[in-house]
Amino acid sequence: MKDAAWHILPALSFILYLAGALACAISALWILRRGDAARSDRSAAIPAVMLTGLWCAFAAAFEPLSPPVLMLEAGRNLAWIYLLLKLFGNDGRDESMGAVKPVVFSLAFVSLLQPVLTVVAWRFAITPQLVELTFQIAMLLQMLVAIGALMLLHNLYAGAAASSRQLLRWSALSLAGVWAYDLNLFAIAYMSGEAPALLLATRGGAAMVLALSLAIGSSTASAGLQFKPSRAVTFQTLSLLVIGLYLMVMLIIAQSLPMIGGDFGRMAQVGFLIAASVIAVLWLPSNRARSWLRVTATKHLFQHRYDYRNEWLRFTRTISESGSETGAEVSFHERAVKAMADITDSPAGLLLAPNEEAVLELVARWRWPSIEVPAVAATYELAGLLEQESFILDLDVLREGGEFRGEREHVPGWLLDEPRAWAVVPLLHFDRLVGAVVLARPQAARRLDWEDFDLLRVVGQQLASYLAEQSGQQALMEASRFDEFNRRIAFVMHDIKNLASQLSLLARNAEKHAENPEFRADMLVTLRNSADKLNALLARLGRYGTGNTGAPEAVDIGALAEQMVERFRSVHPIVLNRADSCLAMADMEGLDQALVHLVQNAIDASPQDAPVFLEATVDGLNARIDVIDTGEGMSPEFIRRGLFKPFVSSKDGGFGIGAFEAREIIRAMGGRLSVESREEIGTRFTVWLPLHASTGLTRDECNVQSEVA
Q1: Would you say residue 666 lies in a domain?
Q2: Core vs surface per residue 417-455: b (16+ CB within 10 A) or e
Q3: Quick one: pLDDT band at residue 242, thresholds 50, 70, 90?
Q4: pLDDT at position 227, please?
Q5: How does pLDDT run across 247-275, given as a tens digit for each residue?
Q6: Spatial contact of 150 and 100, defined as CB atoms under 8 Å apart
Q7: What's the CATH code of the domain at 656?
Q8: pTM above threshold 0.70
Q9: What pLDDT is stored for residue 5 in this prediction?
């Protein structure tokens, strides 16, 4: 296997050096056409990249350590040193470099010694001792060039202004990578006495990276590019590195144990492998390990602790999606706590909210069943302080005796005594406290910093708006239920009011006509009808205000109109102008109720002695019932905006229910209700109902039946 690997190296070396040559040619062309013409290093970057490409081409054609390649390598190093000198000119430091210029000249002199040493080794190193000596000197000189160039690079980047570092980033990074690679290569060669074949073969890949990086940094637009891996990729990569390092250390120790010798060594090796595997299975997948890894990566690899885009998407998803945990549905308040706890990797949390007395009470808990929360979780002083100051309580600071706004005396003891309690985040909506979230301490313990405070404050405001909206929706639903209840009661009161009006009129007429036998007979009929009406009202109580009616049936509108006249005759003068015996599709009980509303409204709007007129006729394919009064009438504006609005009435003490309920009942039966009115003249209500389809009656047939009757 080892021999096969060494046979692959020449092919790998040829491919990488050839790729480096092509990359250098493309990069030189890119810098020539796309690079910023005003940059001082442009004139040095193009020759440096071209000489590097020529060196790669010769290394691919000949051996990497052959004399022509070594000669070109010296020229390449001089071009890189000149490029480094020009990079100092991007912010004007090339004119005041002081002690840096002697270092540059020294590096150039050492690089010029390389061709001389190559000629000496080629012509005069005829013994193994001389070959070894020249090799050691060459490697030492190469290391000196690499070390000096790295020192200059550090001085270049560390001393650059913040505005210049963006231009220097890619060029300095590429040169640092190549010289660090060379330093490693020549140091190993110097200590081992021979060049490492693998590093020598892959040197062309380093040149390819150098050329591409110089091309990227040649223009201002592309120089701003940064490699920004996502946090998920970073965490996964770091996790793999940790696992790989752990396995490597485990294998090294396991392979070293047999050196103890004997059966004890073999037993120690097996025991260590078993123990290490158990530790890996228990520790690596744990939440504490993942939290520690995430905190470590965030602290050292990223400028900001949080990936704000992903945090906001996760927060919105948690709030909007109703999920379940352990088979139980998660309430909105629990999701609110979870949405905030996920941001700081908190494993649990509580939601407190002010009650009517402004003291904080427990509303919901998420994954925190063990904590004991008293009935009064916090006093109104703490709620007022959180509302006025709008700051996040760091409980660790309070436990250490520190405070900022005098909050120490108002924080309840149960919070400070609970070691897992970490922070209290107020939820403010329009400067009003709607709640507070208590977060549990993350498994990877850390202190809250400014970034935590800023993000939690913004999330708390957004969460407060959701809670306020949800509270408003609940209040609206409760108000809607009360409105439905009040609406039904209003319908009942309206019907009772109609009955009371009829009985009152009957009582007044009885004082005048009590001795009249016909009146007494009518009075008995009216009383019986009123009693029946009350019983029907009780039976229909559950249906009031819903618009529901019974199944439609054939109803004789002429007979129904006559019944209305008989019902109200003892109460108010009713005149039946016309009563065609015609069948309409309607619910008898509902239509009777609607007509009672319309007739009663007409009586209320008419003078005491002014009659109300009824007509039952056929109009095309519809049955028509008209209720006409000669009262004060209504304005067009009132008809359009107030007539069919519930609880809006033009009468003193009126409920505004009759017309509205009559229209809803008639609509539910497939009919419609129209109105015509003129002020000081009167009003006409017209009920339109579909004719019974099976009768096949037309207007003429109805008239014929009327004549026969």
Answers
A1: yes
A2: ebeebbbbbbbbbeeebbbbbbbbbbbbebebeeebeeb
A3: low
A4: 45
A5: 556 555 555 555 555 555 556 555 655 66
A6: no
A7: 3.30.565.10
A8: no
A9: 44
At 471, list the tokens.
Answer: 């509270």
**Structural domain range at position 255:** 231-298
Q: How confident is the model at residue 701 (pLDDT cuts 50, 70, 90)?
A: very low
Contact assessment for residue 692 and residue 584, using Cβ atoms and an 8 Å cutoff = yes
Burial classification of residue 506, based on how many CB atoms lie within 10 Å of its CB (0-12 exposed, 13-18 middle, 19 or more buried): middle
610 class by beta-carbon count within 10 Å (0-12 exposed, 13-18 middle, 19+ buried)? middle
Considering the domain architecture, whether residues 314 and 183 belong to the same structural domain is answered as no
Provide the token pair at 460.
């708390």
Say how many CA atoms lie within 13 Å of 619 toward its Cβ.
9
Residues 435 and 394 in one domain: yes
- Say if residue 438 is in the same domain as residue 418: yes
Query: Which residue among 203, 223, 243 closes a domain?
Result: 223
Write down the residue that tokens 């205000």 correspond to. 545
Quick check: is 534 in a domain?
A: no
φ/ψ of residue 95, rounded to 5: -85, -15
Question: Which of 30-34, 203-207, 240-244 has the least mean pLDDT?
Answer: 240-244
Regarding whether 427 and 576 lie in a shared domain, the answer is no
Q: How many CB atoms lie within 10 A of CB 291?
A: 17
The neighbour count for residue 73, using CB atoms within 10 Å, is 24
- From the list 192, 312, 297, 156, the residue with the least C-alpha distance to 235 is 297
Total domains in the fold of the chain:
4
Q: Which strand (E) or helix (H) includes residue 623?
A: strand 622-629
Burial degree of 403 (CB within 10 A; 0-12, 13-18, 19+)? middle
Residues 37 and 173 in one domain: yes
Span 429-448, pLDDT tens digits: 998 999 999 999 998 778 88
Is the Cβ–Cβ distance between 615 and 628 less than 8 Å? yes
Relative to beta strand 574-579, strand 612-619 is parallel
Instruction: Name the domain boundary from 223, 248, 283.
Output: 223
Judge whether residue 119 has pLDDT over 50. yes
For the four alpha carbons of 459, 465, 468 and 473, in that order, the dihedral sign comes to: negative
For 83, other C-beta atoms within 10 Å of its C-beta total 21
CB 213 within 8 A of CB 170: yes
CA-CA distance, 645 to 673, in Å (whole number)? 14
Domain identity same for 571 and 602: yes
Tell me phi and psi for residue 555, to 5 degrees.
-125, 130
**Residues 152, 104: Cα–Cα separation, whole Å:** 8
**Identity of residue 314:** R
Structure token digits, residue 282: 């228990």
Q: What letter does residue 691 receive in the DSSP assignment? A: B
Distance CA 441, CA 555 (A): 75
Spatial distance between the Cα atoms of 182 and 211, rounded to a whole number of angstroms: 16
CA 671, CA 143: separation in Å to the nearest integer?
A: 102
Angle at 71 between CA 65 and CA 75, to 5 degrees: 125
Same domain, 211 and 279: no
Question: Do residue 408 and residue 553 come from a single domain?
Answer: no
